[in-house]
Amino acid sequence: MSHISADTSWMNTGNCADQHPSIFFPSDGVGVERAKKLCEGCVSQNPCLEYALVNRVEHGVWGGASERQRRRILKARRQSLLQETSVQIS
Ligand code: SF4
Q1: For FRET with 12, which of 22, 29, 40, 48 sits at 20 to 30 Å CA-CA?
Q2: Which atom of ligand 1 is nearest to the CA of 38?
Q3: What range does the domain containing 58 cover?
């Protein structure tokens, strides 16, 4: 199931607002670290990360998190949800 978030107003206030988008779609680990550095202290970090998670954005650095980090967050959330569900059922 896909949830497309329509509110992207946070993009206008992010540290990346005046950066070239390609910075946030790096091709190597050095580029990922450079992008994550720009995300540090960004006022839009939370909505940016949630946007990427909810919309299952697979590529790039969003909310200070790499693709791998977002996959881990989603996996942890799924496991947490499963545990909550099993507690409610039992
Ligand atoms: S968290 Fe990073 S990618 Fe997201 S808006 Fe801020 S600077 Fe841009």
Answers
A1: 29
A2: 7
A3: 9-89
